[in-house]
Amino acid sequence: MATENDPGMKEAGAFPIDRPTEALLRDHNMVRKLSEKYLNSDSQEVKMQAGKQILQALHMHSRLEESVFYPAVRCIDESLIGHFEQDHQHVDDLLATLDGMSLDNAQSEPLMRELISAITTHIQEEENDLFPRIEGSGVDMTPVGLQMQAFEANMVHMQAQLSDQGAMRR
Fold first, then answer.
1. pLDDT band, very low/low/confident/very high, at 3 (cuts 50, 70, 90)
2. Is 6 part of a structural domain of the chain?
3. Distance between CA atoms of residues 89 and 5, nearest Å
């Protein structure tokens, strides 16, 4: 259990700098819940809301893994990281296509289902193959966690700035 004196978790919801895979697991769980909501709803409004949240979460999560996490853990298993980077390329292509269309477009439904399927498989492979290898490697993940925390904070800041600029134009 984290305490206030634990530098890895100063408060509930804080980025676990000494255990960055836990931050990735939180993202995975959020995407799972949103995916279930999307797949199990008959409401177009619920699907659009969940779909939009899935796309936003995946954009941030993918950039974080591609830019910081994968380069930092490549030494643990280069071929596995290469496989995950290929998965990401497929997901990034789907994200780009979905970003260019409205989620109420009839073509978005099969693409969202393909995206969710690809992501679900990818998440399971990361959690079952990569994360245990990282845990067993003895590699100090604190520097990686600090980089991930800074990267994520910067992305949130940039999104807020873009949102503010969009609001000022109206």
1. very low
2. no
3. 40
Q: Which two tokens stand for residue 104?
A: 């109420």
Task: Please give the distance of CA 81 from its chain centroid, rounded to a whole number.
Answer: 16
3-state secondary structure of 167: helix
pTM: 0.84
Per the structure, how many domains does the chain have?
1
* Cβ burial 33-47 (10 Å sphere, 16+ → b, else e): ebbebbeeeeeeeeb
Which residue range is the domain that position 55 belongs to?
Answer: 20-169
Within a domain: 1: no
CA angle, residues 69, 57, 27, in degrees to nearest 5? 60
What confidence score (pLDDT) does residue 168 get?
62
The predicted pLDDT at position 166 comes to: 64
Q: How far is CA 14 from the centre of its chain?
A: 16
Residue 12 is assigned to a structural domain of this protein: no
pLDDT digits (tens, 9 = 90+) for 95-139: 999 988 888 888 999 999 999 999 999 999 999 999 999 999 988
Tokens of 103: 């989620």
Residue type present at position 147: Q
